[in-house]
Amino acid sequence: MPLAKRDQFYGPANAMGLGSGLIVTNVAQPVYLPDPDAYGTGRGAALILTHECDIDPENIRPFSDKALIAPIIKLEKYIENFGADHGRDDTISLASHVAKGNTSRLFFLPRFGDEASPLRFGALIDFNYITSCGLQSLVKSPVLCSLSGYAISVIDRALQNHLFRPKVDPAPLPHG
User: Fold this and answer.
1) Tens of pLDDT along 8-36?
2) Among 35, 50, 98, 141, which one is least packed by beta carbons within 10 Å?
């Protein structure tokens, strides 16, 4: 993946209507709790993945009360948690692989914003954490920024690569 400057990756918060390509903050989202093996609810930043026509309040259609989002993980939080479990060398190795685009489930978002921004040091999207949220929560969430057309295309390709890469073991042929 070619690297882009921040001004080539992000756009203004009001550049697009509510939908794919916007980064929002303080959105309610499920959080897995391993101890009780259950889900709770947390709030955080997320990239909206659902197309704007599917969540437009003016476009009434069945099942349009949810949106697909990719939670955004602050880079410093991910490094802190991964480093605590795996040590310094593995953390450096993972960071190198993510930066080179060699880890299909993780996508690096460049720095954006000031000290209050969840992207102030950069952040990660872990494609294995994609989830849904209620539209009523999403419309109340502040918009941090939009992605540029370039950024949307890069993230779309990374997501496609993650979801459609070949299986390690070939699937069995149907009998019949």
Assistant:
1) 899 999 888 889 999 999 999 998 898 88
2) 35
pLDDT of 58-93, one tens digit each? Answer: 777 777 789 999 999 998 998 888 888 898 899 889
User: Structure tokens of 172?
Assistant: 């069995």
CB proximity list for 120: less than 8 A, separation 6 or greater: 111, 112, 113, 114
The tokens for 36 are 């009780």
pLDDT given at position 7: 63
Q: Which residues contact 116 (CB under 8 A, 6 or more apart)?
A: none
The tokens describing 145, both together, are 């920024």
